[in-house]
Specification:
Blueprint lengths: L1 E5 L3 H9 L5 E3 L2 H7 L3 H11 L3 E5 L5 H12 L5 E6 L2 H13 L3 E6 L2 H9 L4 E4 L1 H6 L4 H15 L4 E4 L5 H10 L3 E4 L1 H6 L4 H23 L1
Parallel strand pairs: 1-2, 1-8, 2-3, 3-4, 4-5, 5-6, 6-7, 7-8
Helix pairs in contact: 4-5, 6-8, 8-9
Protein backbone atom coordinates (compact mmCIF):
# COMPACT_ATOMS: atom_id res chain seq x y z
CA UNK A 1 0.00 0.00 0.00
CA UNK A 2 1.33 3.43 -0.93
CA UNK A 3 1.20 6.23 1.63
CA UNK A 4 0.38 9.71 0.39
CA UNK A 5 0.27 12.76 2.65
CA UNK A 6 -2.98 14.69 2.42
CA UNK A 7 -1.59 18.14 3.06
CA UNK A 8 -0.12 21.18 1.35
CA UNK A 9 1.88 22.21 4.43
CA UNK A 10 5.58 22.24 3.58
CA UNK A 11 6.77 21.57 7.14
CA UNK A 12 4.56 18.48 7.41
CA UNK A 13 5.74 17.27 4.03
CA UNK A 14 9.40 17.68 4.97
CA UNK A 15 8.90 15.71 8.20
CA UNK A 16 7.02 12.94 6.42
CA UNK A 17 9.50 12.74 3.55
CA UNK A 18 12.36 12.48 6.05
CA UNK A 19 10.91 9.19 7.35
CA UNK A 20 11.35 7.67 3.89
CA UNK A 21 7.83 6.18 3.68
CA UNK A 22 5.88 8.86 1.80
CA UNK A 23 5.08 7.90 -1.79
CA UNK A 24 3.12 10.97 -2.89
CA UNK A 25 0.89 13.89 -1.96
CA UNK A 26 -2.74 14.85 -2.44
CA UNK A 27 -3.91 18.44 -2.25
CA UNK A 28 -7.22 20.21 -2.75
CA UNK A 29 -8.29 23.86 -2.87
CA UNK A 30 -9.00 23.90 0.89
CA UNK A 31 -5.53 22.61 1.78
CA UNK A 32 -3.85 25.02 -0.66
CA UNK A 33 -5.84 27.99 0.69
CA UNK A 34 -4.64 27.28 4.24
CA UNK A 35 -1.05 27.88 3.15
CA UNK A 36 -1.76 31.32 1.70
CA UNK A 37 0.07 30.90 -1.61
CA UNK A 38 -1.32 30.61 -5.15
CA UNK A 39 -1.96 27.02 -6.22
CA UNK A 40 0.78 26.76 -8.84
CA UNK A 41 3.44 28.27 -6.58
CA UNK A 42 2.60 25.91 -3.73
CA UNK A 43 2.51 22.88 -6.01
CA UNK A 44 5.99 23.70 -7.32
CA UNK A 45 7.30 23.83 -3.75
CA UNK A 46 5.67 20.51 -2.90
CA UNK A 47 7.28 18.87 -5.93
CA UNK A 48 10.68 19.91 -4.60
CA UNK A 49 10.08 17.97 -1.36
CA UNK A 50 8.33 14.73 -2.32
CA UNK A 51 9.40 12.58 -5.25
CA UNK A 52 6.14 10.87 -6.16
CA UNK A 53 2.67 11.49 -7.53
CA UNK A 54 1.43 14.96 -6.59
CA UNK A 55 -2.31 15.51 -7.06
CA UNK A 56 -3.21 19.09 -7.95
CA UNK A 57 -6.90 19.91 -8.29
CA UNK A 58 -8.53 22.08 -10.93
CA UNK A 59 -10.77 24.91 -9.76
CA UNK A 60 -12.99 25.09 -12.85
CA UNK A 61 -16.32 23.27 -12.87
CA UNK A 62 -16.82 23.12 -16.65
CA UNK A 63 -15.01 20.73 -18.97
CA UNK A 64 -13.19 23.35 -21.02
CA UNK A 65 -12.04 25.14 -17.89
CA UNK A 66 -10.81 21.88 -16.37
CA UNK A 67 -8.90 21.03 -19.53
CA UNK A 68 -7.28 24.44 -19.65
CA UNK A 69 -6.27 24.38 -15.97
CA UNK A 70 -5.28 20.71 -15.97
CA UNK A 71 -2.97 21.07 -18.95
CA UNK A 72 -1.26 24.01 -17.26
CA UNK A 73 -0.87 22.05 -14.01
CA UNK A 74 0.56 19.03 -15.84
CA UNK A 75 3.27 21.28 -17.28
CA UNK A 76 4.53 22.24 -13.82
CA UNK A 77 6.27 18.93 -13.11
CA UNK A 78 6.35 15.35 -14.48
CA UNK A 79 4.94 14.04 -11.16
CA UNK A 80 1.72 16.07 -11.36
CA UNK A 81 -1.55 14.14 -11.38
CA UNK A 82 -4.47 16.39 -12.33
CA UNK A 83 -7.37 16.12 -9.92
CA UNK A 84 -10.92 16.39 -11.32
CA UNK A 85 -14.27 16.09 -9.53
CA UNK A 86 -16.61 13.20 -10.23
CA UNK A 87 -19.13 15.20 -12.20
CA UNK A 88 -20.28 14.91 -15.80
CA UNK A 89 -17.89 17.65 -16.81
CA UNK A 90 -15.13 16.09 -14.74
CA UNK A 91 -15.55 12.69 -16.38
CA UNK A 92 -15.53 14.31 -19.85
CA UNK A 93 -12.30 16.09 -18.94
CA UNK A 94 -10.84 12.86 -17.54
CA UNK A 95 -11.49 11.04 -20.81
CA UNK A 96 -9.74 13.77 -22.80
CA UNK A 97 -6.81 13.93 -20.39
CA UNK A 98 -6.40 10.14 -20.58
CA UNK A 99 -6.27 10.33 -24.37
CA UNK A 100 -3.61 13.05 -24.08
CA UNK A 101 -1.49 11.02 -21.67
CA UNK A 102 -2.25 13.24 -18.66
CA UNK A 103 -2.87 11.25 -15.47
CA UNK A 104 -6.04 12.05 -13.54
CA UNK A 105 -7.13 11.54 -9.94
CA UNK A 106 -10.93 11.57 -9.94
CA UNK A 107 -12.04 12.87 -6.57
CA UNK A 108 -15.20 13.09 -4.46
CA UNK A 109 -16.28 9.52 -5.15
CA UNK A 110 -19.04 8.15 -2.92
CA UNK A 111 -20.49 5.19 -4.85
CA UNK A 112 -19.19 2.18 -6.73
CA UNK A 113 -21.17 3.32 -9.79
CA UNK A 114 -19.21 6.59 -9.79
CA UNK A 115 -15.96 4.64 -9.50
CA UNK A 116 -16.97 2.56 -12.52
CA UNK A 117 -17.54 5.75 -14.53
CA UNK A 118 -14.09 7.05 -13.60
CA UNK A 119 -12.37 3.79 -14.58
CA UNK A 120 -14.16 3.70 -17.93
CA UNK A 121 -13.00 7.26 -18.59
CA UNK A 122 -9.40 6.19 -18.03
CA UNK A 123 -8.75 7.60 -14.55
CA UNK A 124 -5.29 6.90 -13.12
CA UNK A 125 -6.63 7.13 -9.56
CA UNK A 126 -10.11 7.07 -8.01
CA UNK A 127 -10.57 8.71 -4.60
CA UNK A 128 -13.46 7.34 -2.51
CA UNK A 129 -13.99 9.40 0.65
CA UNK A 130 -14.37 6.81 3.41
CA UNK A 131 -14.50 9.17 6.39
CA UNK A 132 -17.24 11.34 4.97
CA UNK A 133 -19.35 8.25 4.32
CA UNK A 134 -18.81 7.12 7.90
CA UNK A 135 -19.96 10.58 9.02
CA UNK A 136 -23.43 10.03 7.53
CA UNK A 137 -23.88 6.51 8.86
CA UNK A 138 -22.55 4.53 5.88
CA UNK A 139 -19.55 2.19 5.94
CA UNK A 140 -16.79 3.76 3.87
CA UNK A 141 -14.77 0.54 3.76
CA UNK A 142 -17.65 -1.29 2.10
CA UNK A 143 -17.20 1.13 -0.79
CA UNK A 144 -13.48 0.32 -1.04
CA UNK A 145 -14.27 -3.40 -1.14
CA UNK A 146 -16.96 -2.95 -3.80
CA UNK A 147 -14.68 -0.88 -6.03
CA UNK A 148 -11.81 -3.35 -5.63
CA UNK A 149 -14.09 -6.23 -6.65
CA UNK A 150 -15.48 -4.42 -9.69
CA UNK A 151 -12.04 -3.34 -10.87
CA UNK A 152 -10.74 -6.91 -10.54
CA UNK A 153 -13.74 -8.28 -12.45
CA UNK A 154 -12.99 -6.12 -15.49
CA UNK A 155 -9.25 -5.65 -15.27
CA UNK A 156 -9.36 -1.89 -14.75
CA UNK A 157 -5.92 -0.41 -13.99
CA UNK A 158 -7.29 2.58 -12.04
CA UNK A 159 -5.70 2.72 -8.58
CA UNK A 160 -7.98 2.99 -5.55
CA UNK A 161 -6.97 5.77 -3.18
CA UNK A 162 -8.67 5.74 0.22
CA UNK A 163 -9.32 9.39 1.06
CA UNK A 164 -10.86 11.18 4.03
CA UNK A 165 -8.94 8.91 6.40
CA UNK A 166 -9.48 9.92 10.02
CA UNK A 167 -7.45 7.51 12.18
CA UNK A 168 -5.02 4.55 12.07
CA UNK A 169 -7.82 1.97 12.00
CA UNK A 170 -9.00 3.48 8.72
CA UNK A 171 -5.52 2.89 7.28
CA UNK A 172 -5.44 -0.79 8.26
CA UNK A 173 -9.02 -1.37 7.11
CA UNK A 174 -8.35 0.30 3.76
CA UNK A 175 -5.27 -1.89 3.24
CA UNK A 176 -7.30 -5.01 4.06
CA UNK A 177 -10.10 -3.89 1.73
CA UNK A 178 -7.74 -3.63 -1.23
CA UNK A 179 -6.94 0.08 -1.55
CA UNK A 180 -3.73 0.64 -3.48
CA UNK A 181 -3.09 3.99 -1.78
CA UNK A 182 -4.06 5.66 1.47
CA UNK A 183 -3.81 9.43 1.68
CA UNK A 184 -3.26 10.46 5.27
CA UNK A 185 -3.23 13.71 7.20
CA UNK A 186 0.20 14.12 8.80
CA UNK A 187 -1.31 13.49 12.25
CA UNK A 188 -2.60 10.07 11.20
CA UNK A 189 0.70 9.06 9.57
CA UNK A 190 2.49 10.02 12.78
CA UNK A 191 0.02 8.00 14.86
CA UNK A 192 0.84 4.81 12.94
CA UNK A 193 4.15 4.62 14.81
CA UNK A 194 2.63 4.67 18.26
CA UNK A 195 2.09 1.79 20.67
CA UNK A 196 2.73 1.86 24.43
CA UNK A 197 4.35 -1.59 24.38
CA UNK A 198 6.89 -0.40 21.82
CA UNK A 199 7.85 2.49 24.11
CA UNK A 200 7.87 0.27 27.19
CA UNK A 201 9.93 -2.43 25.50
CA UNK A 202 12.55 0.00 24.21
CA UNK A 203 12.84 1.63 27.63
CA UNK A 204 13.37 -1.78 29.27
CA UNK A 205 15.98 -2.89 26.72
CA UNK A 206 18.02 0.27 27.31
CA UNK A 207 17.73 -0.04 31.09
CA UNK A 208 18.88 -3.66 31.02
CA UNK A 209 21.84 -2.88 28.80
CA UNK A 210 22.86 0.15 30.84
CA UNK A 211 22.61 -1.81 34.10
CA UNK A 212 24.95 -4.57 32.94
CA UNK A 213 27.59 -2.30 31.49
CA UNK A 214 27.44 0.17 34.35
CA UNK A 215 28.08 -2.72 36.76
CA UNK A 216 30.96 -3.95 34.59
CA UNK A 217 32.43 -0.48 34.50
CA UNK A 218 32.21 -0.09 38.27
CA UNK A 219 33.71 -3.56 38.87
Amino acid sequence: MKFFLDTANLDELKKGANWGIVDGVTTNPTLIAREGRPLEEQIRRICEIVDGDISAEVLATDTEGMLREGRALAQLHPNIVVKCPLTRDGIRATKTFAQEGIRVNVTLCFTAAQALLAAKAGAYIISPFVGRLDDIGSNGMDLIRDIALIYRNYGFKTQILAASIRHPIHVVEAARAGAHIGTLPFKVLDQLFNHPLTDKGLEQFLKDYAKVFQETSVG
